């Protein structure tokens, strides 16, 4: 290998020490005859692959934050342990990406300085462990949370143009160490192979925008109206879920619909509760220790009213927003009880918003009675029936006959031979493509998608033309005046797609010129 050009001995040694875990000066290197071998090149390639692998996982980790509260609830259901696992995920991912990034930067600097890439065995073991950890994470994601692959695909509609520019920039910067290596090595076969691979990757990146589609690349005057907000169990980031306080906070967030879950007590009183048991959102373990694991429908209304449905919120802190609660709000949470459906309907009626609910559990042997009891409470409440959105599929025809004014919301897409047209559907956001959303909008079908918490996701669905979204973060989405991609990328989103075509061509041309300059400069 040639002597290191343009790199002082101190710099070369400082770079070599953390990478090789050896304090080798250039003089010692010459005396020992150290060179970058084929094995060293293989380990550098492995390092580069691990870096890319970890970088992709970082992207996935950021994307799945939208749904991570579901994962926290799942773990609590299994282990009765509450922890914000999203923080663990982000910290672990940050450590892995920082480590692989640091090693890659060291390797590239060593190559520019003409130093041997002698990766220490400790780093080799840690890189293998990093690859195994990330592979395990991806495997677990595919087995237990497969719908997140759809979330990642949706995210590319928002981030695709920016990922393209970032990838072109990153690969362009690699031209310097690549040119340095090619001019130093005397192995013609390796030179040709690396150049062919690099050229193939760059050509693929230059042409990548041909496959990039984003609903937010449009004229500003083509932007659909902002989707209405549906409070998921109220405003669960600001108050204990499924309580009157949460409902009131949702009203302050200007939601148009309060989404909740209804169960029926042992003595026939419909009440608000999502989980099968009461352990996560009440102090049932302290009040009824021997019955804590029983189904919530096994308790009568008098027993349910003895429970504290709010203190858990400030104790477990299910969302980071709990830290910013005022003293008055903290005191208010301690006063929360499990509300009955009748109380919720009265609050909804006074606030002039709608209510949408599931009736649980669907597989209960007395489910028909649950439907009748719930309908009775609705009809007695005096709420205008058009403000009630009925989600349960069980005994739906019976509901239509007894309360024809109730709006029927379906948890499925329309069928080819639909007997009567669907007017409202409620689906996970992963189950509807942008094209389907546009088509349903043209056919005057109201589409509500759940659960949408992150601004990037709300922006994509907004551009697609969705009618409403169910959210935990109504206080965040309320403040959005336009999709963030329109806000942050005026050149791309506010102008026609021809402008994006121009940006794509300019970025590719600049990248090509910089690569040529790097090869000519180092020659």
**Which spans have pLDDT < 50 for at least 5 consecutive residues?**
1-6, 487-496
User: What kind of sheet is the major sheet?
Assistant: 9 strands, mixed
Average pLDDT taken over every residue: 89
Q: Helix count, per DSSP?
A: 23
Percent range for β-strand residues:
5-15%
Structural class determined from secondary elements: alpha/beta
Number of structurally distinct domains: 2
Gyration radius, rounded: 29 Å
CA-CA gap between termini: 16 Å
Tally of strands:
9
Task: Tell me the overall shape.
Answer: elongated
Give the fraction of residues assigned to helices. Answer: 40-55%
Task: List its traits.
523 residues, 23 helices, nine-stranded mixed β-sheet, TIM Barrel, 2 domains, alpha/beta, transmembrane helix
Report on this model:
This protein is of the alpha/beta class and 523 residues long. It has helices spanning 9-20, 26-32, 38-63, 68-79, 85-112, 121-144, 147-173, 175-184, 188-207, 244-252, 284-287, 301-304, 311-316, 327-333, 341-351, 367-381, 396-402, 434-442, 455-464, 474-477, 484-488, 490-493, 497-522; strands at residues 228-232, 257-264, 270-272, 354-359, 388-390, 407-408, 424-428, 446-450, 468-471. Strand 4, helix 16 and strand 5 (388-390) form a beta-alpha-beta unit. The protein starts with 8 loop residues before the first helix and ends with a helix. It has two domains: 11-217 and 504-522, no CATH class; 228-274 and 344-479, Alpha-Beta Barrel (TIM Barrel). Strands 1, 2, 3, 4, 5, 6, 7, 8 and 9 form a nine-stranded mixed beta sheet that branches. The chain crosses the membrane at residues 41-65, 85-113, 125-143, 163-183, 192-212, 501-522. It is a multi-pass membrane protein.
